Amino acid sequence: MSAASLRRAARESVSGLPRAFWWLWTSTLVNRLGAFVATFMTLYLTLDRGYSASFAGLVVALHGLGGVISSLVAGVMTDRLGRRPTLLAAQASTAFSVALLGFMEHPAAIAAVALLVGMTSNASRPAVAAMMADIVRPEDRVRAFALNYWAINLGFAVSATAAGLIAEYSYLAGFLGEAALTLACAVLVYVKLPESRPERGGAGAAGGSGGSGMSMDKGGAEPEIGLGSVLRDGRFMGVVGLSFLISLIFTQGSVGLPVAMGSAGFSPGDYGLVIAVNGFLIVALQIPVTRLIEHRDPQKLLVVSALLAGYGFALTAFAGPVWAYALTVCVWTLAEIVNSPTQMGLVVRLSPVHGRGRYQGVYTMSWAVAALVAPLMAGFMIDRWGADWLWATTGVLGTVAAVGYWLLMRGLSEGAAGESAPAAAGGTTATPQEAPLPTTSGPVGAS
């Protein structure tokens, strides 16, 4: 491919997206550039503080539990208070709690603040996803979510390298650096990002309901959406359940894979080299692959990605040398590249306009719960039966998820093709019309 073709492809990948999206994208990149705590928490507690591996595991689990709690709370805040206030509160409180964690000495204090960090750092996710759905045209959403996912991985790849060097000098400097960058995100949100929450009762709101089968009341206004409404949305909760299965699979890359490689006699450096393939491929391939799949059938994409994820990890059972482990990472990384933006686009299609925060909160919770379950599952299976059983289980989970996606999306209309473009400007704009989609649940009412 010529340089001119590459430049043209790059322009087409980023063109047509509103300015507000790029400020949101920038805040995501800056935030991920400071991702120190999640990456080095275990090493900090065991090497720097001298705590046991079991205590480090408890702290990491509490961090994950905080994410489970905040997913629901932040989703409600996103709908009730707005996207911008939720982002500001989440990022400012994250900056404070991360800095505080660096100064904690007592084990109970470390555990308590780690729970707080997990709550605050996860609280911005529903607001980011809801705002992105608000400001980006329906036909551009898969591309927008892919670009955002690319920013997450680019930021993580850079931060992991920089944080490793910082940790050799001072772990406290890492905590304070993350706090500073997170605070910079809060300032960026405050200065550059206007509120995008759609107005209730507008012309767009009267036109459709997204994927929840929601009916209008007699006055033409959209009924209130509560968490109970989300939980009663059968098709959407099916997506949440499948997301949990997919999350269990992908999380093994940071949980089961290092343990299995360590048991097989490989060094931490070997694992670092293997897992680096994941980040490199996402940064290199996310945008061009998204261009290829952007307008293809999401049902087929999700089915194929689930199979690639499950059997990509299952192939680890046959890996011997380091390069073989790296090849298995290539397989499930391709699944990750396809699954992430496609599934996010599906979640938005199934979310009523005025319930996007709650829907995103419940969806985010599936990943947070998987982050709690996956380490327990990996540890139990490897200790009891060996790593090969874990990899066989990932193949089964991938197959179940693929069948689930195929059944769940039968008869699901394209929906997004007929949606009107939302305004990219700030303030309370007219609500974009969401084309109605069939659902397995009854009409959504107030909880």
Topology:
Elements: H1 3-14, H2 19-33, H3 37-48, H4 53-80, H5 83-101, H6 107-122, H7 124-135, H8 141-169, H9 171-192, H10 227-231, H11 234-251, H12 256-263, H13 268-293, H14 298-314, H15 322-349, H16 356-384, H17 387-408
Helix pairs in contact: 2-8, 2-9, 3-4, 4-5, 4-6, 4-7, 4-16, 5-6, 5-7, 5-9, 7-16, 8-9, 8-13, 8-15, 11-15, 11-16, 11-17, 13-15, 14-15, 14-17, 16-17
Describe the 3D structure.
Helices cover 71% and strands 0% of the residues. The chain is mostly helical. Helix 8 (141-169) runs antiparallel to helix 9, helix 8 crosses helix 15 (322-349) and helix 14 runs antiparallel to helix 15. The longest helix is centred in the middle third of the chain and has 29 residues, at 141-169.
